[in-house]
Design a protein that fits this description.
This protein is an alpha+beta fold and 232 residues long. It contains seven helices and four strands. Pfam families: Tad.
Length: 232
């Protein structure tokens, strides 16, 4: 009888230990699943912030280039039409561009199609349209924009943004296509382990997001370019 009771108690103890082990494994599984989803969200945020940074720095570089551009000197033999605007005498190119930009902002703001756009969105859209038009008709301006060292500035800023958001540069990429900056980046996922039962996992969780459309990006930068960010 004593042996039977001892065996029964032993079986119960083994059953309880087994159940506790299963519960512990399920708990770690749920914990790791939650961690993986959280890392996926972090990676999406990292990629998004990096793509927005690329767009912001690109705009800044274009603005700086416009400030350095001057109207080309007219050739002495050329006669200007009587109704042409004497742009060179009246204002600098920066003033001329800003005047066109302000006019475009006013035009867009008055349109129903842009009624739900923020002031910043309308200003960027106006900038895109004006610069696209100017770069398409002024070959020397387009040459100046393309010759600027903005690529290095954009790439460095994207790398910094990834680091600042806890991301890793391993296999990260900056992609230029469809007039947008796309960034593929990752944050590292590290799982919770259980000795002898659940192994530790370390893995980069990648996400790709795009910045806002920039109408003149392909015109100035080029199309369909993929830049590895894990290279110096």
């Amino acid at each position: 009888m004593k042996n039977m009771l001892a065996n029964e108690k032993g079986n119960i103890a083994l059953f309880v230990l087994g159940m506790l082990s299963i519960i512990m494994i399920l708990f770690i599984f749920v914990l790791n699943l939650g961690g993986a989803l959280a890392t996926k969200e972090k990676s999406a945020t990292t990629a998004q912030q990096a793509s927005l940074t690329a767009s912001s720095v690109f705009y800044e570089e274009m603005r700086a280039a416009l400030n350095r551009y001057e109207f080309p000197e007219p050739e002495s033999d050329d006669e200007e039409p009587e109704d042409s605007e004497d742009e060179e005498d009246d204002m600098s190119y920066e003033e001329y561009f800003n005047e066109k930009l302000n006019d475009k902002i006013s035009d867009l703001s008055s349109l129903v199609a842009y009624s739900d756009w923020s002031a910043n969105e309308i200003e960027l859209e106006a900038f895109d349209q004006v610069l696209s038009s100017e770069a398409s008709t002024r070959a020397d301006l387009l040459f100046l924009l393309r010759s600027q060292s903005f690529r290095g500035e954009v790439i460095t800023a994207v790398k910094d943004a990834i680091h600042e958001n806890g991301g890793v540069l391993e296999e990260a990429e900056l992609i230029v296509k469809n007039n947008r900056f796309y960034v593929r980046a990752a944050n590292e996922f590290e799982s919770t382990s259980l000795n002898g039962v659940v192994d530790e996992i370390k893995e980069n969780v990648y996400q790709e997001t795009a910045g806002p459309k920039i109408d003149f990006l392909n015109l100035v930068w080029g199309e369909n370019e993929t830049i590895p960010l894990d290279e110096d």
